[in-house]
Amino acid sequence: MNSKIIFWMNDDLSGLGLPKVLNEKYNSDIYGIFDVTDKQKFFFQNQKIINFSKIWFYHDHISTTFPKANREYLKNVEEKYHLDLPLLISVERFFTKSNPFYHFSEEQKLSIVEQSCKFFEKTLDEIKPDFLIMGITTLLHNHIFYKICKTRGIRILMIRPSFLAGKYIISNSIDNFENNILEKKFNFHNNLELRNYLKNYNSTEQAKFVRTNFQNSTIQYLKAILKYIFSQNSNPKTHFTYLGRTKLRVIRKMILYTLKTKIRKSFIDKNLLHEIEKNHPYIYFPLQITEERSLSLAAPTYTNQIEVIKNILNHLPNGYKLYIKEHPMMSLRGWRSINDYKEIINLPNVKLFHPDLKSELLIKNSSLVITISSTSGIEAAFLEKPSIILSDVDYRLISSVKKMDSFNNLSNLVNSSLNTKPNIDDINNYLNLVESNSFELDLLKLSSEFDSKFHYTGLLADVEIPVDKMDSYLNTNLDLFENLAMQFIKKITN
Can you give the pLDDT of all 494 residues of the chain as single tens digits? Predict the structure, then answer.
């Protein structure tokens, strides 16, 4: 096999063993675009472990002098690659108020997008790859690259987690299945059988693992601070994503962030509810993590979740309340502002629940689940509850899951959904579809091990990567990478 494969990789380099195995064992020509920091860049310039035919560093091609954008070119890019650039730019987290270090002008934003597109087009014209291998798109620039590749007919092999914790899917997008042929492995006869099966793939344990192992070590926290203070940092001059990050400002923001997080958590513990009022009918809406692709890229028109809540309240049936729960993983974002929590709490017919309360209880006792793009919609089906989704998700194939096109038809959709019950045959078909397209692999543990070895448990990305240490990491996990490569080969040769 001599396929040309281009990889997009960011600073989570835990998957570097995949291109190594594809090149050595399957004779693939491998190329790489790396969205990494300057210290990580040094590793790729000196390593001999992985035989890339050619590599590019994304930020080498984005000038922070921001040359004036050609709007005609950008208009052509939008049409050619079916992109809504103004919408995507408006929700990119580096361009919004969530970036506390730098305010980009509209002209600078357009310049970054234009430079990115020209670099992507030039690179693809040069090597003409057969396949693109990447993880889930998370930022504006790698999402644009994905869209350009897809429109050009380059086959996308995107690895993503399935709803079943520990099972992964390789597909051409995050919201569908590439293979629609079902292997009839499952035929559950009732929801009790179904729920017993799902206990083996509960994402709650994964969430606990992340909260325990990611950025949760005081010793590593102190080491990361000292490393940052006493090492050179060239990224603010070379990476637009690091603009404005002087050491003094970063440390000051970090101290304020720590204090804010503690104050917000204290407010949450005192003011968010821990018990459900079961004798009152309600619709359940789970809050989602901010600054995540599940909002910015999957549902860019619904990133303001308070406005979404207000719109749902306008279509709430008589006699119903809206129950809302904070997402436990918002702890990694320092929680929401206290003003946001107060605004939600003060809304009429709203109850706001503590992040530690189990979502299962809220779903089980609800009449309906409304979610933007979270897994609560599929969990609802497993608990015999209907759901409404506001964006495209792969479980929309289940008939009790209805997609809202606009808030104008939400009242009718709510009323029809309240009279809908999940069909066990639909759920069996969905699970068989997941089973036919997925494989088991402990990639979460792999990523955690990488963060522990190289990134101070995820606390510092701009670090040197010793070649011998990376070589040891890759060899230690060789069996896992060979299994992963085999899954990709199945797709490539299919």
Answer: 589 999 999 988 999 999 999 999 999 999 999 999 999 999 999 999 999 999 999 999 999 999 999 999 999 999 999 999 999 999 999 999 889 999 999 999 999 999 999 999 999 999 999 999 999 999 999 999 999 999 999 999 999 999 888 899 999 988 888 777 667 788 888 888 888 888 777 766 666 666 666 667 788 878 888 888 888 889 999 999 999 999 999 999 989 999 999 999 999 999 999 999 878 899 999 999 998 888 999 899 999 999 999 999 999 999 999 999 999 999 989 999 999 999 999 999 999 999 999 999 999 999 999 999 999 999 999 999 999 999 999 999 899 999 999 999 999 999 999 999 999 999 999 999 998 899 998 888 888 889 989 988 888 888 999 999 999 999 999 999 999 999 999 999 98
C-alpha distances in Å from residue 88, one per residue of 83, 84, 92, 443: 8, 6, 6, 29
- Own/partner pairs for 235-238, CB < 8 Å, 24+ apart? 235/37, 235/38, 235/462, 237/64, 238/38, 238/59, 238/60, 238/64
Residue type, 384: E
Cα separation of 225 and 220, whole Å?
9
The closest of 364, 210, 349, 351 to 289, measured between CA atoms, is: 210
Record the pTM.
0.93
Per DSSP, the residues of 396-465 read: GGSTTEEE-S-GGGHHHHHHHHHT----HHHHHHHHHHHHHHEEE--HHHHHHHHHHHHSTTTT------
Helix (H, G, I), strand (E, B) or coil at 33: strand
The DSSP code for 59 is G
Q: What are phi and psi of 59, to 5 degrees?
A: -75, -15
Q: Decide: 74 and 114 in contact? Cβ < 8 Å.
A: yes
Q: Which two tokens stand for residue 117?
A: 């597109």
Cα 340 to Cα 225, 283, 307, 343: the distances in Å are 30, 20, 11, 5
The token pair at 454 is 């190289």
Please give the torsion angle defined by the CA atoms of residues 39, 136, 377 and 278, in that order, rounded to the nearest 10 degrees: 0
Residues sharing a CB contact under 8 Å with residue 304, sequence separation 6 or more, in sequence order = none
